[in-house]
Amino acid sequence: MKKNRKVTLVFSGLILLAASLTGADASPRGDILLKEGIEAFQQADYQGALYRFREILSNPQDRNFQGDAYFWIARTYLALSRLEEASKHLEYFLSKYPDNPYIMEGMYEKGRLLFLQRQFTECIEHLDRFLKKYPDSPYGANAYYWIGESAFSLGRLKEAEKIFHFVVTQFPTSFRVEAARYRLDIIKLKYREEELMKLIQWSHEEHLKALEEFQKRETVYQETIKTYQRRVALLSSQDYQGEILKLAEQVRALENELSLVRKRAETLQVEKETLENALMKLRVESTETRGGIESSRAADATAIKNLLELLQLKQEALALKEEYLEKLKREVMGPEERKE
What distances in angstroms separate CA 59 from CA 15, 53, 72, 91, 192, one per listed residue? Predict the structure, then answer.
């Protein structure tokens, strides 16, 4: 009897131990900490929330609530804009707790986190997969909105406009509708801005083109003017040179004529001297004979006198001609030529 009683007591103890262990697995402490942490999060008491969620992670008896704790820690860091820590805890949650009730929301939060990290292309790709996996998700409007925001940030305005219009028409009761409408207005302004920029750029290009054309024409005009100036100078120089050549020819002809005149003057001078000698001889001989011969000699003397007067006039004419030629030569020739 005693032996059976001992066995019964041992068995009862094992049952109580098992019951206590089962109670540890479903510890009400973890549930309370989780609720308090969520309440603190909702009241923006993020440090208080983190404290409670970490308490769950530090206690093995609260392992049934640790998946939820990781999710809320990620959301708390996200609210604090500590994106790296949020991403680390969220990735751990998604990989370690795929059956957790928060898994769908966790996948949505990852898309939003990618947007905040400015990984816009990755955000679009991730949320596109999310919407295909959860087409009826209550986060659908939000997911589409962040896809639109990502496309807008990438400058893909047509795609963003289409997405925001879809949010407005397909989710009219969503709180994202007003934000989507605002973005649609911004996109319209962007279109106008782009058109204005194109117009300004076109006007600027036209202005530059007109300015360039004007500068080209101005250059051509300046070159043409220079060419004309060179031609005028050349023509003037050529005309002047031609005139000089003509005058030089005239001077040379006059010089030749002067040379001939001088030779003739020399000949006349010799003739004059000969006549003067003959006259002196006649005057000496006139004392010897005066009679009938005197009248004849008087006639000869008169003729000789007339000849001498004619020679005198010729000499004066030659002197005047020579003076005129010298004056003409000074006018035609330059100072350098006169020095030579």
Answer: 24, 10, 16, 21, 59
By CB atoms closer than 10 A (0-12, 13-18, 19+), residue 56 is: buried
Six-digit token string for 15: 């049952």
Read off the pLDDT of residues 106-115 as tens digits, 9 standing for 90 and up: 999 999 999 9
CA distance 55 to 150: 36
What is the CA 121 to chain-centroid distance, rounded? 32
Q: Which amino acid is at 185?
A: D
| CA 10 – CA 4 distance, rounded (Å) | 10
Looking at this protein, which amino acid is placed at residue 315?
Q
Say which residue the tokens 């009938």 belong to: 292
Assign 221 to helix, strand or coil: helix
Alpha-carbon distances of 263 from 259, 269, 316, 340, rounded to whole Å: 6, 10, 15, 25
What does the radius of gyration of the chain's CA atoms come to, in whole angstroms? Answer: 65
User: pLDDT tens across 5-54, in order?
Assistant: 443 333 344 333 333 444 444 568 989 999 999 999 999 999 999 999 99
- Measured distance CA(168)–CA(181) in Å, rounded: 7
Distances in Å between the alpha carbon of 250 and those of 135, 245, 261, 324?
115, 9, 16, 13
Burial readout 245-271 (b: 16 or more C-beta within 10 A, e: otherwise):
eeeeeebeebeeebeebeeebeeeeee
Is 123 buried (19+), middle (13-18) or exposed (0-12) by CB count in 10 A?
A: buried
User: How is residue 100 annotated by DSSP?
Assistant: S
pTM: 0.54
Residue 138 — φ and ψ, nearest 5°?
-65, -10
